[in-house]
Amino acid sequence: MTRRRKDTPPARPATSYDVARLAGVSQSAVSRVFNPGSYTSDAMRERVLRAAAALGFTPNGFARGLRSDRSGIVSIVMTTLDNPNYPGVIEAFARAFQRQGRQVALIAAFADAEDALARIVRYRSEGVVLTAATRLDLSRRIAGLCVRRGLPLVLYNRRFRGIAASSVTAENEAGGAMAAQHLLACGRRRAGIIAGSEPTSTVRHRIGGFVSAMRAAGAPAPPVARAAQSYDGGAEAGAALLGAHPRLDALFCAADVMALGTIDHLRHRLGRRVPDDVAVVGFDDIPSAAWATFDLTTIHTDHAAMVEQAAQSLADAIDDPGRPAGHAAVAVRLVARGSTPPPRPRPA
Amino acid sequence: MTRRRKDTPPARPATSYDVARLAGVSQSAVSRVFNPGSYTSDAMRERVLRAAAALGFTPNGFARGLRSDRSGIVSIVMTTLDNPNYPGVIEAFARAFQRQGRQVALIAAFADAEDALARIVRYRSEGVVLTAATRLDLSRRIAGLCVRRGLPLVLYNRRFRGIAASSVTAENEAGGAMAAQHLLACGRRRAGIIAGSEPTSTVRHRIGGFVSAMRAAGAPAPPVARAAQSYDGGAEAGAALLGAHPRLDALFCAADVMALGTIDHLRHRLGRRVPDDVAVVGFDDIPSAAWATFDLTTIHTDHAAMVEQAAQSLADAIDDPGRPAGHAAVAVRLVARGSTPPPRPRPA
Questions:
Q1: Is the predicted ipTM greater than 0.95, yes or no?
Q2: Centroid of chain to Cα A166
Q3: Residues of A in contact with B65 (CB under 8 A)
Q4: Are residues A263 and A205 in the same domain?
Q5: Based on the domain organization, do A40 and A81 belong to the same domain?
Q6: Which residue of B has its CA nearest to A31?
Q7: Does B130 lie in the same domain as B87?
């Protein structure tokens, strides 16, 4: 039995008991070898792994799943290769779930939502995090499929109308309002808005907060230009906006990466000074916002806190499947830098 | 048998045959539901998934592993949260392995090499890719453990002396030489070198190629300053180098992100003009190198080709475990931009 040849299918899969017997060790020693974080000597590890290989033993969390329906696997789904707005978020999720004692499967979904779901199911995922900077339609289809299958799901930095999934975002609307109030305090009232062309909830809320605060102050309604959510898209939208509205004295960019492209285009192509002619405010506080050449005033979003919150939300949903979907919004704050002029003293 | 309650442990794990019988469908229909990319109707999917859940069936690649020792899982190991030199590489690997019909497990290793190995083994990984921008010691320990266990391993953008693993890098030495030759062609001979403080093979080869080409042209030996491989580290190293050697007329930065910090520091803190006073060449051609404010001359590394090559190397190593470890170096090219002056005409 223990010497079964590979080409003869086993009557039943080997168990940790079989491995322990062949290796001549205790079952708990076998379990330690296959549990991350447990201590075992190199010699013991070697012995157990050799026995496991000889028996075709499956040393993974799925064995636990067979008994308890708990695989310990969560899937992180990405729909884009290019995530300039939050580098390191995938890695931060891996770290957070590992701290929960879970394993992380990475699903790259580039076109086919059904294929992504099949991969999620194949891993026997206990839950899913959907991260998405762009690719709105694809993300929504994947989210819908997960919810229909009853898979615990958390949306990261995104909400979908009509899909009952938990979500974690920044306080996007409040951040938009902060940006407007800061520009008003700096004496700028003729603002334009630059945003990514996909109508995501994040962009909608950021713009909504900005427009409401401008309106509340009696400032003119800001014109909006949309383009790809990228450095080049920011340059393009900035050019379009200032071409159509040359008297604008401020720009609010719903993503930092667009603000950087806008600033460079204003300075190097249009010969406009930032902030003297046009003040610029971004959103996200990506690392390059702080670089000396940009010195970008922006709304800081706390992705470390958002990842922690999302990982916790998913753990809660897995532990209590009856729990209703919830939304968490993580606080943002204004970081005032040199792309806006100093605020004016308030009248006495 | 098919109505077994969850709290009674099964005598043996359910098979796809059991699922097919309970669902009243063919075994190939069950297989289609659990194979990414296969077509099944929503109704069929629902029916099969319900039967699988009732039986505690494990619908994953590991079942294949029980029969054939092939799990179809590869692990990608990261040792840092912050990968400014190649954003999107993790996602590109996920895509490449999915195209091979494999699944991707993501392992975040932040301190403990043994823990990373236990996770790799627990997934029953067929092979491992180790991506590492920094954290040299940890990466080396993980690589050593994988090789000792006979796990197929590919090192991405890194080589380790004394560890017999396949590796894929850029042509780092040739790139360093190209940078030197371009500066010489622009009439700059008094060059300094800025590099990350960890003695990685990548940094060593880039510096080696640069120094050799300068020496071959009879130029003075370039002084080297090292700091964190980051924007701030670049600013710091640039300040130190120009403080100690004020007559330098060129800087070669072994990573673009350091070149950006150096350029901003030269312009905004030291009042030096780039390229008029000091020419700057980077390495990698990250997206921000092309931004108007930096317009950085750099050595382009083709990460898309490197990822494809690494994924293929790992597939080859899995298919033929006896294959000796090999190294692939992917070609680089100089991208001349505005941070270096125009090359001088050659003497007739």
A1: no
A2: 13
A3: 56, 58
A4: yes
A5: no
A6: B122
A7: yes
How much is the pLDDT for B234? 97
> By residue range, what is the domain housing residue B24?
16-59
Question: Does B56 contact A78 at a Cβ distance shorter than 8 Å?
Answer: no
Residue A199 to residue A205: CA distance in whole angstroms: 10
Q: What is the pLDDT of residues B266-288, one digit of tens each?
A: 999 999 999 999 999 999 999 99
User: Rounded to whole angstroms, how far apart are CA atoms A116 and A108?
Assistant: 7
Task: Chain B: give the shortest CA distance to residue A166, in Å.
Answer: 23
Q: Are residues A106 and A49 in the same domain?
A: no
Hey, are the CB atoms on A35 and B122 less than 8 Å from each other? yes
Are residue B156 and residue B186 in the same domain, yes or no? no
Q: Report DSSP letters for A296-322, one per residue.
A: -EEEEE-HHHHHHHHHHHHHHHHH-TT
Note whether residue A95 is domain-resident: yes
Residue B35 pLDDT class (50, 70, 90 cuts): low
| Whether residue B292 sits in one domain with residue B199 | yes
Chain A hits for B269, Cβ within 8 Å: 292
- Output the domain CATH number for residue B324: 3.40.50.2300
Q: In this complex, do A108 and B95 lie within 8 Å of one another by their Cβ atoms?
A: yes
Report the pLDDT averaged over residues A59-70: 46
Cα dist. B289→B229, B255, B286 in Å?
15, 11, 6
Contact between A264 and B291 using a beta-carbon 8 Å cutoff: yes
Query: Does A158 lie in the same domain as A218?
Result: no
Q: Identify whether residues A139 and A159 lie together within a single domain.
A: yes
**Higher pLDDT among residues B10 and A237, named by residue:** A237
CB contact under 8 A, A36 and B115: yes
Token pair 């900077």 is found at: A133
The predicted pLDDT at position B2 comes to 38
